[in-house]
Sequence to fold (919 residues):
Amino acid sequence: MSPSEFVQQLVNSMSLGSIYALLALGLSMVYGVLGMLNFAYGELVTITGYSMLAATYFGAPFIVVALVGVIAAGLSSVLMELVAFRPLRNASFVSLLFTSFAVAQLIQGAFRQAVSVRSRGIPVPELFDEAVRLGPVRISLLSIITASVGAISLVALTTFMRRSRSGLAMRAASQDFTTARLLGVRANRVISLAFLISGLLAGIAGVLWIARTTSVNPTTGFVPVIQAFIASVIGGLGNLRGAVLGGFFLGTLEVFLQATLPGSLLPYAQAASLLIVVAILYVRPQGLFGQRVEAV
Amino acid sequence: MSGVIPRSRFVPAVWGTALISLVLVAGMALVQGLGSTSSSRTYVVFLVNVMLVVSIQMFIGNSGIVSFGHVAFMGIGAYTTALVTIPGAVKAAQLPDLPSSLATADLGLVPAIALSALVALAVAALFGGAIIRMTESTMAMATLALLVVVHTFLQNATTFTRGSLGLAGIPVRTSIVVATVAAVGFVLAGRLYKESGPGLRLRAAREDALSSASVGTNVVRTRYAGWLLSAAMMGAAGSLWAQSVIAFNANQFYFAITFALLAMLVIGGRTSLTGAVAGAAIITFMTDTLARVEQGVAIGPWELPRITGTVQFAIAFLIIITLILRPEGIFDRWEIDDLVRRLTPAARRLRRGQRAEDVEPLVPASRPQGAPGPAVEPAGPEPTTAPVLRGEHVAKHFEGVAALAGVDIGVRAGEILGLIGPNGSGKTTLLNVVSGVYAPSEGEIVFHGTAIGGRKPHQVADTGLSRTFQNIRLFTELTVRENVEAAAPPGTDEQAVGDVLAWFGLAAVEREKAVNLPYGMQRRLEIARAVVRRPALILLDEPAAGMNESESDELLENIRRMRASLDCSVVVVDHDLRLIMKLCDRIQVLDQGRTIALGLPREIAENPAVIAAYLGGPSARSA
Fold:
C-alpha cells in the first residue's frame, strides 16, 4: 500500500468509523440508562431510509430529505419505547432483548408488506461522488462530509451531556438509576430522552449510511446494527467513550481488510473482522476500553 | 443414573419426560391414524422443532445467557449430514470439486447424526473457548458474530455447500417414528441435564454467579460444558432436520429460523422443557395454518385474498403479547410434573392449610439422628493451636484508595473470631480478599498451609472455606433444597442435605423457591448453604443484620452449634455488638483499613482506641 493510498484509506476509515461510532453510541446510551440491548435499533436506520424515500417523492432538496430522515428516526425511537418497552419496564434483561427482537421483526415485516422486498433507490446529490485532490491523494467528498458530520455530532452530544441539566441527569441515571430517581430525576423523562438521542444518532448515521448505499430495503438496518453491537462490545458495553472508540476501531479494521484482502477472500471481509474482534475479546473479555471487572 | 442425580430430582424428571413422551406418541398415533400426508409432514416439522428448541433451551434456559448463534450449529449439522448421506452420483453432479473422501462417503442415519454432533461440538469448542468468559450481555452479542461468521462461510465455501443454490437429494430418513423417538430422546436428555449436578450448578450460576463461585462452582467451566452439550445436540438436531427436508440452502440458517426458534423458547417459557415443547407446538401449528391461509382460502362465501408475510407478523405479536402478560413465558418455571403434582390432594391440602411462616420453628430444636449438632456444650478454643487462616500485611487498594492498609489476621482452629469496626473500616473487603472475590494488592494469605491469596473464589471454596454475604445472595428462583444441593460438594448424599435442612428448620419448606421465604429463613438458608460444604472455616458477613433480639439470640445458638458439630472456625462480621460480645472468643477491631485492637471481648470493651473509633471522640493516639 503506497503512502497516498494509505492516507485515502485512513480517511475512509474515519468516515465509516464515524458512522459506526454514532450507532454504537446510540446503542450504549440506552444500555447505560436501562441496561437494555435494543435489537430493533437497526430498524431505525431502515425507518430513516424509507422516510427519506418518502420525502424525495415530494421533491424536497436533499438537506430537507436528510432532516426528515433524522427526525423520523428520533420520533420512532421514542415511540418504540412508549409502545413496546415501557409495558415491560421491570422485566428481565432477556425478556427485553427478546421484545426488541420481536419489534425488529415487526418493523421489517411492515416495510415488506407496505413497500416491497426489493431495494428502492434514493437519489443523493452528485456532489457526493466528487473527489478532492490534495497532491497525490484523492479523497471522496462523501468521506469528508461523513467524517465531519460524525465529528460535529459527537462534539454536540458531548457538550450536551457535559453542560446541560438533562445531560447531567442522564449521566447520573447511567451510573445508578435508583439513586438518581431518589434524588428527583424523573425516570420516564430520562428514558424517553435517552431513546430520543439514541434515535437521532441512528438517524444521522442512517442518513450517512444511505448516502453511501443510495438505496433502502426492509433489511437495510441489519448490517449497521450488527456493527454497532460489535463496536459497543469492543468499547465495553455501556461505556460511551468506549463505544465511540470501538466504532472507529471497527471502521478502520473493516476498511483496511477490504483494501488488503485478495479478491477471492473479499466476501469474508466482515467475517474476518468479526473473528479478529472475537480474538481481541478472548484476551480482553471486558472490551478494549472497558474496565476489568474482578471476581467470578 | 439416579446415583448421579438425587432421587428428589430424578423421579420427577422421569415422570415429566414420560408425560411429555405420552403426548408426543399419542400425537403420532393420531396423525398416523388420520393417514394424511400433509398432517404427518407438519407433525415431523413439529418434532424436529422440539429437538431444536430443546437443544437451545439446554444452554439459554439453564445458563440464562442468550445465544443468537445456535442456528449456526444447526447449519453445520445439516451440511455435515448432507455431505455424508447424499448418494454419490447426485453429490458429484452438485459438488464436482469435493475431496474424494467426502465424495464417496455414505453414512446411515445414526452415524450421520453422531458425526454432525461431533462437527458442531468442535466448532462450539473453538468459538466457545473465546467467548465463554464474557459477561452475559457481551456474550449475547458475540454469539451474533458466530451466526454471521458461520453464515458467511456456508454461503461462500461453495466447494462444499453450493452456497445459496443449496444441496438436494438427502435421503429422507427422519420418518414420523424416527422423529418421535428422537424427540423423546432430546426431551429426556434435556431434562436429565437440567436436573444433573452440572445442570443444577449452571442454573445456580444463572441466579447468582458470584455466590455460585463462592460455593465452589467453576462458573466458566460449568457454562462451557453446557454450551458444548447444547451445541452438539443442536448439530444432531440439524442432522435430523436435514434428513427430513430433502433439499436446503445456506440462507436457511440465518435470522428467520433463529427468530422462529427463539420465539418457541420465549413463548413457552425458556427455563422449562415443557414450555419448550409447548412453544414448538404453538409456533409450528400457527406457522402451518397461516401458510395455508396465505395460499388464499375460502371461508363460506368469502374468498380471502392471497397474502404473504403474515407468519413473521404473527410470531412477533405473539412474543410481545406473551412477554407483556407473562414475562417469563407461558409455563414460566413449571414442568409438567409440577403441574400434575399441584393437583394431587396432598399438595392441595398443603397449599390451603399451611404457609411457609407457620411451619417455621423458632429454634431448630430437634436434631435428627446423624445430623451435625453439638455433642456437648461448646468449649472454648485451645489457645495453643496454630492458626488455620493466617493473613499477613493484607492490603487492598481501589484506584488509589486503600480499603485495607496492611492487616494481619489469624484465625485459630475452632475459634469464633469477631471482626468489628465502623462502616468503611475494611471488614467486608477483608472477607472478600480472603474468599477470593478480590485479589489482594499486597500481602499473603495462608489457609491450612496453602497460599490462597489471589486465587479465584471457587478455588478458595474448594480448600474448605465457606462464606455468606452481607446482602443475602441466594439462588432466588431455585428451591430451598436446590440451593443447598447446588452448594454440596460432589459425593454428598441426599440424607446429609436433608439433615442440614432439618437442622436449620428448613425441611418443611424445601420445595419453596428461595425468593418466597421470609427474611429470617433466607438468612438461615444462606448459612445452611455454607454449612453443607462441611468447611473448616466459615466467614459470616453481617448474619444478624435486620434481626431483632430474639432472632439474634437464636442465630448465636446456631453459630455455636455449627462450630461444635463441624469442628470448624468462624469469622463473624457484624454491627450487633451484643451478639459479638456474647459469641466471640476473640475480637479484632478494624478502623480505616488497619487493625486498632485485638483481644478478648472484655478487653475490647474497655479499649480506649476502640471506644474512640466507635464514638468518633478523641483520636486513639491522644486518648
Observations:
- The mean pLDDT of chain A is 87.
